[in-house]
Specification:
Radius of gyration: 25 Å
Largest sheet: 9 strands, mixed
Shape: elongated
Helix content: 25-40%
Strand content: 15-25%
Number of helices: 17
CATH class of the largest domain: Alpha Beta
Distance between the termini: 60 Å
Length: about 475
């Protein structure tokens, strides 16, 4: 068979009316409008005595929709702008740039409050559809009503000269933003853009991002929270800050953080009896024979050597995990001598077995998947040389992440309800369509041959049925 036979009779030309691409992205745009996010951003970004052609809230929403659709630069808002028949008037890239440049600290603070207000309404819709906010899971069981906030930093490489781009600790060049994610819903709660040389263990940044993330959680869901971070974020100041939050009446805010395997830990390990070790737990809750967990709190706080963590909060528990090192693991001299790899976790959770609490902390690794999806949704590349524009972009990108999370939770079923951005774009957002006008209506028709046409139409139906805030 001739490999070119499929081209027989094919003519490529410009023509046709009402044909649109990226038709599914209208769902995320409609979702932003129906949840009150667009209106909230409009109020947050309004300026007295200034009446722009394009409402600034609409501009930021459209940029977030474009980022959710896969845009990595400001100019890639064009797929929306050139399809006015579907999306209506959309700002040009120069207008978007001016809107971002005008987002100073006060405007960004108001934007954060608008996001929080819209999220409060959305969480009510999520609870109505699913019977509650999805529970975070660890060791084969869920954590109930606990809202888990995960902190982690990531490197955004700069391939050109940008303001505040610096050499990073990994030997690259760019920025080192700190992020916070809601493990229950997959939403991006906060992104703090920082220079590339910002330290991983910067307490002030972690405290600021923790505060911004908690502010995004609806008030009625703040009574049981867990803040997690890896060893880089385990600073004394952050632990003290979360401990102070937990002291508020009616609130339960715990932390689970990586801790350095330092001399204090190494000194007491030989005193730990072998029966104190228990099998570590796998992600499904089954025992893992080649890894063990023990609690060191008693030895570190009450042994003959005195309280080795006297300056830390009194309720802090210290857990240690040992396992056979994997090939290529970097071990300390102590670990090389013992032939084991050790990892230490600090937590303020008062109840629960050491096995479960250590397994719960290991789910911190899920934040890497969140960041991977975030980088696939605008955070892999900063679009401007101007630091203020990039800071505002780091507010639009989390909104895009939220729109995709809300789309999954409010409008999709099955595998699509857990799909990553690339899959959602391929199956839903980038779907073709045709607009047919009649009887004072516009009909967006998805080709019946498109395998996910039913899922798209059902998503639109569910979004249109959402009650306004």
């Amino acid at each position: 068979m001739d490999s070119m036979s499929w081209t027989k009779g094919l003519v490529v030309e410009v023509g046709g009316r009402g044909v649109v691409s990226h038709a599914g992205s209208a769902a995320t745009r409609m979702l932003a409008d129906r949840t009150g996010l667009t209106g909230g951003l409009s109020g947050a970004l309004a300026r007295r005595g200034f009446a722009p052609v394009h409402d600034r809230g609409r501009v930021v929403t459209d940029l977030a929709v474009a980022i959710a659709d896969g845009a990595t630069t400001i100019s890639e808002i064009d797929p929306l702008r050139h399809q006015e028949e579907l999306f209506g008037p959309v700002a040009s890239d120069s207008t978007v740039w001016r809107a971002l440049a005008g987002c100073g600290p006060a405007a960004l603070a108001r934007t954060g409050r608008a996001r929080a207000k819209a999220r409060s309404h959305v969480w009510g819709l999520i609870a109505a559809r699913h019977g509650g906010i999805p529970a975070a899971r660890a060791a084969g069981r869920d954590l109930g009503e606990v809202i888990v906030i995960r902190l982690d930093a990531t490197i955004v490489i700069a391939h050109s000269d940008k303001e505040q781009a610096k050499g990073t600790f990994k030997g690259t060049y760019g920025h080192h933003p700190l992020t916070a994610w809601c493990d229950n819903t997959g939403e991006s709660l906060a992104v703090l853009l920082r220079p590339g040389n910002a330290g991983s263990n910067t307490a002030a940044d972690h405290i600021a991002v923790t505060g911004a993330a908690i502010a995004q959680i609806p008030a009625r869901y703040r009574r049981k929270m867990l803040i997690t971070c890896d060893g880089a974020g385990s600073t004394h100041a952050l632990v003290d800050h979360v401990t102070a939050l937990n002291a508020r009446p009616g609130y339960q805010v715990h932390y689970s953080a990586g801790l350095d395997f330092d001399e204090r830990i190494r000194d007491v390990l030989p005193e730990l009896p072998e029966p104190a070790w228990s099998a570590a737990l796998e992600a499904d809750g089954t025992p893992r024979p080649d890894a063990q967990v023990a609690e060191l709190t008693g030895l570190l706080r009450h042994s003959a050597g005195g309280d080795r963590f006297a300056k830390w909060p009194a309720d802090m528990r210290i857990l240690v995990r040992r396992e056979n090192p994997h090939p290529g693991a970097q071990l300390s001299l102590f670990e090389q001598h013992e032939g084991k790899r050790y990892q230490v976790t600090a937590t303020s959770t008062p109840g629960g077995q050491a096995q479960f609490l250590e397994a719960r902390h290991r789910t911190q690794a899920r934040v890497e998947a969140r960041i991977r999806c975030g980088k696939a949704t605008g955070l892999r590349h900063l679009p401007s040389r101007n630091y203020q524009v990039n800071t505002a972009w780091c507010q639009a990108a989390p909104i895009a992440c939220d729109l995709l999370a809300w789309l999954r939770l409010l409008a999709l079923d099955g595998d699509l309800a857990t799909a990553e951005p690339k899959t959602l774009r391929y199956k839903i957002l980038h779907a073709p369509g045709k607009i047919v006008k009649g009887q004072r209506r516009r009909h967006l028709r998805i080709p019946p041959s498109w395998p996910w046409a039913r899922h798209i139409t059902e998503a639109f139906t569910r979004i249109m049925a959402l009650p306004p805030p």
